[in-house]
Amino acid sequence: MAQIRLDNIRKSFGAFEVIKGVSMDIRKGEFMVFVGPSGCGKSTLLRLISGLEDITSGTLSFDGQPVNRLSPSKRGIAMVFQSYALYPHMTVYENMAFGMKLSGRTREECKARVEQAAGMLQLSPYLERLPRQLSGGQRQRVAIGRAIVRDPKVFLFDEPLSNLDAALRVATRLEIAKLHRGMHDTTMIYVTHDQVEAMTLADRICVLRDGVVEQVGTPIELYETPNSIFVAGFIGSPKMNFLSGPFAAHYDAHTIGVRAEHIEFADQAAAWTGTVIHSEILGSDSFVYLDIGSAEPLIVRETGVSSHQPGQQLGVSPINGRIHRFDQSGRALER
Ligand code: ATP
Question: Among residues 47, 206, 265, 297, which one has the fewest Cβ atoms lying within 10 Å of its Cβ?
Fold first, then answer.
């Protein structure tokens, strides 16, 4: 059963419509990630679910009950933002216990819950510190801990990792994944524009574009069967190669897409030949940029350290069947 149902949700700010009829079900315990480019309406959609923003039209239901008019505090949700918004003069313990004290729990109950959350988030050694004595990653974990102690049915995250440096972002991403595994009944909705976060955390991803749902599916569904050029180009790194005009004619499509890892070097009967422009060597694999005369260079993944030199001529072909075909409007064609 859907725990959260969005039925034709619309939101306008004045005459400007930002969310243009979004319908979707989110299951109990599911980790749903909203992704999309800047300004597509991800945060607005999250704020509509939280109640921080009023819905212009459509129905939002929790467990089958419309909640459009329910105040945020009555929805059983907790929210974690990009800016941790901790109280600077309170210790980690006090920051985590603050919301609970207001809700009238006993001192012992507060203590037990804070200690349990601190244990889950590896914050136990820092309970007496002030926020300024913590790293950015630790501060964000305090903000998450403060949400956990409230024991929400639904957790909302709005780009919680975007203020962290690359290493901390990876570490905190793992913490959030572990947290979700440890709280299987808790539904999590997570907003990001980082497709790696979306791929690694989500049970399902919802790709938004300009206030409309472009596609909802598991990370692998979106990766393997994107229904548009937009989704195909958004999910996966490096970005999928797109070729059109004469390059796609042979495949009976307006545009074809092929991922870097689905191209192989071919000595004979190569689909495309070109000149190596540049190789990015990452150690575990390399990305070879090939000028085949198309608008953008073709990116080809090679396992290990590439020995191809700029200026070298190479033939490449897509691996059997690993081509995505799109029509003129950018919609995927039947396979
Ligand atoms: P980002 O990744 O940049 O945070 P987003 O996808 O989360 O973007 P939103 O913050 O939801 O996008 O904003 C969607 C659109 O709505 C933007 O064009 C934004 O300017 C507009 N918008 C958001 N809040 C308001 C508001 N309170 N008043 C007027 N316009 C708003």
Answer: 265
